[in-house]
Amino acid sequence: MKALFLEPFACLSHMALVDALQALFTDWDWTVHTLPDRQWKWRSRLSGLQFSQMIDPNVAYDILLVGSLTPLTELLVLSPQLRTGHVVSYFHENQFHYPFRTEITDSEKQIMYTSITTALAADSVLFNSDFNRKTFLDGATTFLNQLPVTLDKARILEEITRKSAVFPIPLMVTPNHDEPRGNPPTVLWNHRWEHDKRPEVFFEALFSLADAGLDFKLIVLGEQFDRAPEIFNEAREKLASKITHFGFVESRIEYEALVAKSDIVVSTTAQEFYGLSILEAVACGAIPIVPDDLSYPELFPPEYRYPITSPLSFAKALRARIQQAVNNNLPTRQEISGLVSVKQIKTNPNQWREAFTGSTNLKP
After folding, report:
1. pTM for the whole thing?
2. Which domains can be identified in the chain, with CATH numbers?
């Protein structure tokens, strides 16, 4: 089986899918081409042309898997030999749901349109969560209804729906449950250092709890880009006495070791289509504190989700968990790790094989 994987925006979470599938299917002959995780709008426009120049035109593949920022229709026109295999588009996110957008620019409309044609051109359309799938379909419906042309919109949406399915990224972290619970507990942030993750909400809560005398340790991980929010520098200074680690780590082994030391993992994000970093920490026994919104209701029971109606609800939830740790009353790592297996994040390889080969009809 020859498989071609094209990822136009090679950030860590996107590459986690590449790594996981190569680990699951070691018997497949993989070819992987990636582009740097910068200038995503240009990636969505140019990556089809770029990949067409990277691919050997004389090699036939049984499977073509592309990240959803790839303009698939253009790629298949420029490299028609790829049409002989089963074509899969994997949506890590979609452009129809974005919390900080005040108005949709013409370039963003082009990207939205391209994502629809990419889904139409693929044989299988996979999403990492049902939230991602639903917001894509709902957004595509709204978008198509606003177009000033006559289209069979119902047919378009029916076709995409028919061949779409939810396939979470297989979780490849090696759980380590040997680390004892900390007292004081260690709080973990392992997300991108960007504004949509709302780091201000997280750190302001920590500042308040520290001022109130609650004791905790802090590990801050995650990718950093050109201009990280200033709150990270402020937190590094204000919380210096509590910091175990602060900054990105290249080594996967070092990353997992730090995650394994954590007792509590948090999300304050306004934008999340899946939650891979949270799931990795939970697999190692860290207790999640996540919004009751986005993809998280699919992943965790209500007791691990805080309401989003008040900006103080996160701080209240975090305070309660820290106090629980001080009282030596946190659930065990094994108990928390079970939250992941219940949701079957470790997807059965046979299901992926069927999605890739087209041997069964995908069901929503």
Report:
1. 0.93
2. 2-169+347-357 (3.40.50), 186-342 (3.40.50.2000)
